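Exam revision sheet. Question 4 asks you to relate a sequence to its structure. Input first:
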Amino acid sequence: MRYALYLSGEIHTDWRDQIKRAVEMNGLPVEILTPNTDHDSSDNCGDELLGAEENAFWKDHKAAKINSMRHMTALKRADIVVVRFGEKYRQWNAAFDAGIAVALGKSLIVEHAPELTHPLKEIDAAAHAVAENTEQVIETLKYLCLDY
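Answer key, structure tokens:
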């Protein structure tokens, strides 16, 4: 079996690279899908692609709509969605992606530090697995790819 894996969530650490390396090193049958993780490019894509906006609301609105095409396409293609919540920033986009994944009936793995268990309890309750670190996510993926 081959899985399409969408890696959603925080963009300030190298957790996606760790998963990509593990997939490659272990020869896992996994295709990786990601959002745009370049913060500036993501924030400015509307202005850069379709023309500048004077009003910040419309700049953000335009960028969000363009980025949502990538997110929604990846979420629909994915078999498994991994959503990582970092410790530093409020991550409404990550929570939104987790909700969409559940609504689409996707398998959901959530990763976050133990300190975030209470604020993320509803998302954790909807997830198929809740990991405290990226290594646990990798071990879960390795298990899912075993050929019995």
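Marking note for examiners. Helices lie at 15-25, 39-50, 56-77, 92-103, 121-126, 134-144.
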